Amino acid sequence: MTDTHAAPDGIRVTDLTVTYRNGHTALRSATLQVPGASIAALVGINGSGKSTLFKAIMGFVPLSAGSITLLDQPAHRALKQNLVSYVPQSEDVDWSFPVLVEDVVMMGRYGHMGMLRIARAEDKRLVTEALERVGMADFRHRQIGELSGGQKKRVFLARAIAQRGQVILLDEPFTGVDINTERQIISLLHELRAEGRTLLVSTHNLASVSEYCDHTVIVKGTVLACGPTATTFTRENLENAFSGALRDVVFGDGTAQPALTTAQGNG
Fold this sequence. Notes:
- Strand 4 (65-70) and strand 5 form a beta hairpin.
- The protein has a six-stranded mixed beta sheet, sandwiched between helices. A four-stranded antiparallel beta sheet has the order 2-1-4-5.
- The protein has two domains: 1-83 and 166-180 and 195-267, P-loop containing nucleotide triphosphate hydrolases (Rossmann fold); 94-164, no CATH class.
- 42% of the residues are buried.
- It is 30% helix and 26% strand.
- It has helices spanning 50-58, 75-80, 101-106, 121-133, 149-163, 179-194, 209-212, 229-232, 235-241; strands at 9-19, 25-35, 39-43, 65-70, 73-74, 84-87, 167-171, 198-202, 215-219, 223-228, 246-250, 256-260.
- By secondary structure, it is α/β, with parallel strands linked by helices.
- Keywords: ATP-binding, Nucleotide-binding, Transport.
- Residues 11-246 form the ABC transporter domain.
- This is Manganese/iron ABC transporter ATP-binding protein.
- It comes from Erwinia sorbitola.
- Pfam families: ABC_tran.
């Protein structure tokens, strides 16, 4: 008998190919599945297709082949319903643009407003709650460009929370942050998962993947491996995907194995 109450897939990508106008194919025949209410790591070398996957999910680039469903519905429908939040890399943001912290977070509410984007009391309440949740309420009237790297990351997390997206894509959230901020972000990701959100986290920080990620997706022009972190975040799979010096890390099965260090940057 089919369980009609089974949790929906958070993210399902089937045979996805993305070829840019210059002829470069960034992803070819990529297939992955991330269960709902889970945290998945997206790992791979620079240029492996991580950023392209995010762009495809967000509808920023056309699909050459394949399909994407979010929460068991076509991606374009989920996006139209404001069910998907995106936390970009710091490098993708113009920090010189004069905008207040609270206005950045309010952008997460735009999809719920009318054409004039007039904030209602509910929108303002959700912005305040989101800022309090990430510990940035005291900075709401500061210019975003004045903040530290870790503070900026928390502000964009607050924007995603205020949007109330059920699928949250985070592109390198730990780059340029100290260990305390990293711990705060990981704690927040756990809270969001407990609330039923699905999170896909692109990261070069391989040392902490097994600590907070239920699932792992490993990419290198396609999806090399996808599944529970315990069985996917393995030395063999990482050696297939990466090159570089070896340093200590605990892999998905709990054993101490050398991790691969990789260069930071867009992927």
